[in-house]
Amino acid sequence: MNTKIVKDNSLVISKVEEILLTAYQSNHAFNEAFNTDIPLQISSLIKDREPYNVDISEIIFWTDRNAYFDEVENWNNGKIEEENKETVDFLKITDKITIFSELVLSIKRKKIAPFIGAGLCAPLNFPSWGNALNEIVKRLEDMDLVDVVTLISEFKFLEAAEILLQKDDTQFINYISEKFSIRRDWGKDEIVVSALKLLPEIASGCVITTNYDKVLEKVFEFSNKPFEGFMHGIQQRNTFVTDLIRGDRCILKLHGNVGEKETYILSKSQYDAAYGEIVDFTKPLPKTLRQIFISHSMLFLGCSLEQDRTLDLFKQIKDEGQFEIPDHFAILSKPATAEEKRVKENRLSKMNIKAIWYPAGKHDFVEKILKLAIDAANNRIKI
Question: Where are the domains of the chain?
């Protein structure tokens, strides 16, 4: 190509070079690792001109781009393997590789429906339900609530909430609005944290949560994957199931949505009304949960999965034997004793829920296991 053609097309060439330079700079971490401490010096033919200092990564990029990208891919694969080594070793030691591989396959098939409990939002300091009830008791300090404190200590939260709502529903509802609302000054860095930031990569359809807050909505908005279908607790007249079947990204908030008190399910009587004293699948909430349970693989995150109304519903669906139930998964904190672990594992197994345990208190393993699953599902690492 002669000099005139280059000069005549300088604007086009400049634009192409700008695009290429952006691609090169996007691999900053690789370039830093690949380069030597001292750049390569190339002497000039022009008298008294200083030598040119050029990084090795830059030379390869501009002279053999295919070789450059081969090097980047190889480096990234090695980095991914190094980052995930602890998690892979842990899954092998705990003999959970097979279950983990089944989880990865469900992610690949876009069949995962994350079921999110309060534990996943713990970094944002929302109160646990037990702590929330105790704080409401303090707001009603002028009342005799010894029986409520006892119920809370026995983990009978529905019964405790029932009494508190009867005593002063205004204070109760106000507490929910104050404590479970997202602060207006919070941005992406305050909300998309820990394992939360990985959810949009595994959820292509439905997300279920017991949380009142709007954290999940914000996480998916910040990832440019906003929810298109909604169902909030006992909310009436919505098209959630239709949206779900159509494949839209939907969120089911089992206990209601903060700021919409008409959707709340807080007490035993509200639970009975929403589910039936014996689970009634003609009611909207049980009917919707059944649809998800038989059509998706749920992944329970931030949940304790102790016996509750939702698990009773899942067990009833399984016991009735009317549907083929897919495998479901849970990433859970390991119980204190081997007996507790065995009993819980057996109970969950009866609902087709397969558990991957992580060491008690080491909640960062949830994010590590999810990251490994996403890398494996995208063929960035082989287990």
Answer: 3-79, 97-125+191-377, 129-179
Pairing type for strands 40-42 and 52-54 reads antiparallel
Q: Quick one: how many helices (H) and strands (E) in the chain? A: 18, 9
Q: Is the pTM of this model over 0.70?
A: yes
Of the candidates 185, 189, 252, the one whose C-alpha atom is nearest the C-alpha of residue 222 is: 189
Burial letters 49-81, b for 16+ CB under 10 A, else e? eeeeeeeebbebbeeeeeebeebbeebeeeebe
Q: What is the CATH number of domain 97-125+191-377?
A: 3.40.50.1220
Q: Which of 18, 19, 24, 14 lies closest to 56 in space, CA to CA?
A: 24
Cα–Cα distance, 140 to 125 (Å, whole number): 23
Over residues 175-208, the pLDDT tens digits come to 999 999 998 889 999 999 999 999 999 998 899 9
Phi then psi dihedrals of residue 125, to 5 deg: 65, 30
- The Cα 104–Cα 85 span in angstroms is 17
Q: H or E segment at 146?
A: helix 146-153
User: How many CB atoms within 10 Å of residue 341?
Assistant: 15
pLDDT tens for 243-268 read 888 888 999 999 999 999 999 999 99
Report which residue type is found at 90.
F
